[in-house]
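ENTRY TYPE: protein
WANTED: fold as tokens:
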Amino acid sequence: MKNIYRVSQYAWDKFTDWIRKPDNQMYFMVTVFVISILPLLALGFYNHPAMDDFNYSVLVKNALRESEGLAKIPAVLGAAVQRAMDNWGRWQGTYAFSFICALRPSAFSEKLTFLQTFILMGLLTGSIYYCCHVILHKMLGLRRQTAAVVGSVILILCVQYVPIGLEAFYWYCGSIGYTGLFSVLCILCAKLMWASHERKLSVKGLILILFLEFVTAGGMYPNALFGAVFIFLLFLDALFGKEYNKSFKIKYTGIFLWYLASFLFNVLAPGNSIRQSNFQPRTPLEAIYKSYTHSLEYLREEGTNAIIILATLALFVYMFYQLKEVKGRFRCPLMFTAVTYSLYVVLWVPGIYAVRFISGGRYYNVIFYALIFFYASNAIYYAGWMRRKYEVCGEQVQEWLRKAAPVIQGTLVIVSVIFCLVKVDIVKEIEENNGAKALKSIVYGEAAQYHKEIKAREALYNDPEVRYLVVDDTTVRPELLYYGTLTNDPNDYRNDVMRQYYDKDFMLLIRPIEPEETEEQE
């Protein structure tokens, strides 16, 4: 036992010595994040198009069939524009989302479906790392390694505990409009904040911001409305701030007006009126009030688990030590919490206003990402506030706190462990993260079976000799992959869309297989 203890102590001492270096902290956290997403990326190779993927890409598929060579490029782009125009006039004004969704990789070849997971994961990863780099490193002056550590913590929580992983990284049509365009929104907000911080904006930077605005304002309404509110606040700051020169004020005015025009082009689309006729909207004030109450209820019941609490606490402690190098004052922490929470609530307003509730797991995914940002930003801000309070204490108090640091840290660890053991099923929450779900789906063979069955169907779908097609439902339904395709209702528009997409005369599902039936057969 003594030898085991000595070896363990030696290994622990080596690790703690190694982890003290900022570079090693960054390497460690980035490695943990990369390892955590490997099962999710691997599962992407078993993925297949589903539901509205066919609806949004049917014109692109027809263009690919009817054109040859280089003529495919203008034909496909024209088909994507036509899809966006049709939706704008008949369904909803989200022109950027419709265009991007029509160009999904699997529309060009079903062998490229795996790319969709890599694109979505890459967008989210790149945007969050970029946000943290801009805010923490470039604006606050922290080490770039510190920014990478914080970005890794945020990403691990966002990816592993996003409520509906299927609609975050696998179902392209549901994912790109929410997770994908949320990532674009993050990049846009970071660039706007950096421009305000530097009080200058180059022509190239302005063009890029205008492009990102056009894309964000033409996306789904939670992201689009948040962008409108955020840019309006920065516009007011630029307009009335004495530290900004005239040229910057003019540029920021143009930025605001361009976003406003793009956003109104989305909101005032004729299709929105047609779609909205199916619902009874709330008044704007009622929607704002209900958004606050619903968000607080979500925060209390679903928005936090033991892992998130512990990660937020660890981030607070970590940043308390890191922020000693920063000169920021971190004043009025309660005001910071009120403002950041109100910005988070903005994401709730479109759903609560238009249809009186949050519709779809993909919508909750965006709400969850924003909630993690709210937790992380407040953990950092309060760490900075407490750091400043600590620094103004007398030398005797500081010395006492330094001596008491091991006791305080140990107490926090014990309290955290007791909390998890008594109040939360932490084992379940570790096992039920999305990486574990993906790994189990692969290891148990569920993903492979699903992939095999859908591939066999796609061979029939793409066979020009088969004109009349009736199939059974899949025998397995992987949680992160299955979203359904055909239905057993001959009048369902989804069947007709798939028929057009694959150029068939008739397509139908015989009958859905219920999970209970599958279990009995097994």
Observations:
- Residues 106 and 113 are 5 Å apart (CA to CA).
- Residues 515-522 have pLDDT under 50 and may be disordered.
- The chain has three domains: 52-111, 113-428, 444-521.
